Fold this protein.
Amino acid sequence: MSIEKAKAYLRQFGAEDRVIEFPVSSATVELAAEAAHCEPARIAKTLSFRTNDGVILIVAAGDTKIDNPKYKARFGCKARMLAFEEVETEIGHAVGGVCPFGVNGGVTVYLDESLRRFETVFPACGSSNSAIEVTIPELEKFSGFKAWVDICKGWREA
């Protein structure tokens, strides 16, 4: 199960016991915010894309949308999300539980600037009813991210 993969990965940081398993679905930003009792913006959604160089994950605040011109300027191609049926095979986690923890080899993780305005955020942990509350420095460490990017819109106005 994907949550077990995420927990096993987080074990190296001593954080596997911090994974929260909700009795309800947290598969969408709105459901996750309700389950975690926080504002939707603090849900760190993980989006999967195919670029010319391979598969990437963008972890962004829950109140954002991808800004296509910024994405193209940063990655040199149009923003193409993975198809539903590709996600689990390519990333290692199914839709609803995609997270930057314990992903398949070759998947590059980027963190969007929209997350920096929060002290803590809630990314999923491999299942449609899990999350972990992490600080931004913990998210950097646990995700093994490559770089911070500024490719989302809607949050600066919020």
Remarks:
- The CA atoms of residues 6 and 101 lie 5 Å apart.
- Strands lie at 20-21, 43-51, 54-61, 65-66, 108-112, 120-123, 130-131, 134-135, 147-149, 152-153.
- The chain has a mean pLDDT of 96.
- Helices lie at 2-11, 29-36, 68-75, 84-91, 136-143.
